[in-house]
Amino acid sequence: MAWNNQSMVTEFILQGLSSSWELQIFYFLFFFIVYAATVLGNLLIVLTIMSEPRLHSPMYFLLGNLSFIDMSLASFATPKMIADFLSKHKAISFEGCITQIFFLHLLGGAEIVLLISMSFDRYVAICKPLSYLTIMSRRMCVGLVSLSWIVGIFHAMSQLAFTVNLPFCGPNEVDSFFCDLPLVIKLACVDTYILGVFMISTSGMIALVCFILLVISYTIILVTVRKHSSGGSSKALSTCSAHFTVVTLFFGPCIFIYVWPFTNFPIDKVLSVFYTIFTPLLNPVIYTLRNKDVKDCMRKFSSHIFKSRKTDHTP
């Protein structure tokens, strides 16, 4: 995509989370630990699912892809935010800003489709168990993951189609730790009301409608599970409750921010931190704590790595 921005602004100033030097040192240490835990946790899930034959099933294939997206979602802006805590000049170039917006909507759109796919997987597994392996074939799973990335790309491109050529002639301060589209378009030198309405229809309302559909889907699954009392049904209920928790954590902040893009609430910055940093961290925690198979395989995979390293260092 060619960036033909005809404005005087060549960079944006990110105001970050705080102007207090003491708080910034605390945030640096805190978010460094959180980011490291997020990347390592999601990477461990991906490698465990790839290496363990017990986890070579449609549900875990989708979970592995979700962990990859979460790891990427936590990485599009967090490393710069952490570095900015030690910098007085928190600037980002116009191209860098557009790149952040692109990856946020690419990964966000892909995750929405993937969460819907995981809901469909659980629906088939619980409501149509005899046809599960036929419906959720390898071809279907690969198709769902591919669709998630295709939708993510088209969604990101649609958000940038009108944004890249907006004239920015000052001010250039973004009240966040990364370039979020609702905050950036407010800095344009033209009336962005129509663009804001477009953003509501393509981001806010889509997120809201998808969340409602997912709530309906998991309600149907819950009703079906409650008709059974077997151990397998209890396991299914635990898995679905973990999925629904992840859905709520992801969609809640997105809906709040993108359904009301014209209004800037004080809590917006907190919600931005939550869905770009904490949700990718909580996802592996939720799935591992609620899923015995994943926990057992992760312990086995971790112990295998440590034993291999110990053997390599033994003279």
Q: Can you describe this structure in just a few lines?
A:
This protein is mostly helical and 315 residues long.
Describe the 3D structure.
The protein is mainly alpha-helical and 315 residues long. The protein is built from eleven helices and three strands. The chain has helices spanning 21-51, 58-73, 78-84, 94-127, 132-135, 138-160, 181-185, 193-226, 231-259, 268-290, 292-313, and strands at 11-14, 91-93, 173-174. Strands 2-1-3 form a three-stranded mixed sheet. It comes from Acinonyx jubatus. The chain crosses the membrane at residues 25-47, 59-78, 98-120, 141-162, 193-224, 236-260, 272-289. One of its GO terms (cellular component) is plasma membrane.
Average pLDDT rating: 82
Strand content: under 5%
Give a short account of the largest sheet.
Answer: 3 strands, mixed
Low-confidence stretches: none
Identify the overall geometry. globular
Distance linking N and C termini: 55 Å
- Counting H and I runs of at least 4 residues, what is the number of helices? 11
Strand order of the largest sheet: 2-1-3
Portion in helices: over 70%
What structural class do helix, strand and pairing data support? mainly alpha
Number of strands: 3
Q: Could you spell the SSE succession in H and E letters? A: EHHHEHHHEHHHHH
Rg value: 21 Å
Give the quaternary arrangement of the chains: single chain
